[in-house]
Amino acid sequence: MLPDDDLSRSLTVADPDDPGTTYVSLVGNTYAMLVTGEQTNGRYCLIDMRVPDGGGPPPHRHDFEEMFTILEGEIEFTFRGEKHTVRAGSTINVPANAPHHFRNVSGAPARMLCMCTPAGQDEYFLRIGDVVEGKDAPPPRLSDEELAERRRRAAELASAYRSEFL
């Protein structure tokens, strides 16, 4: 038997051009928080990732599922040490706990949707990145000390968000 409808939850419409969308600059990428864990009772989050040519995170792993749908460009995913080139229109799923990272190899900006289940990655990004004005806003110019602080904070908070850098 299904539980009753939870009337405290509302319909969510995710529009990256909505003025209320929060954008975060992180490692040179710009991430739009389209659907947050707060909106889904922690079930998942959806992030619109804009990745400049050559951009991407360092090798890492986490204990939650991560699915990427490539919307524009070409992304090279390294999964358990093996490289896979994924082009616009394709979707991949990275299983929980698997070491991975990605790099934009398209020679132009790339864009993809990232769904994490359960949610939490959205909160982590907000805590370690810098909020910017919009999808086309340049990343902030950070001093060496500020960059070191961002790295320290990312490493310090990683375990609280069930992640580890490799």
UniProtKB/TrEMBL annotation:
Domain Cupin type-2: 49-115
SUPFAM superfamilies, alphabetized: RmlC-like cupins (SSF51182)
Transmembrane domains' residue ranges: none
Pfam families, per the entry: Cupin_2 (PF07883)
Top-level division of the source organism's lineage: Bacteria
UniProt-listed InterPro entries: Cupin_2 (IPR013096), QDO-like (IPR053146), RmlC-like_jellyroll (IPR014710), RmlC_Cupin_sf (IPR011051)
Protein name in the entry: Cupin domain-containing protein
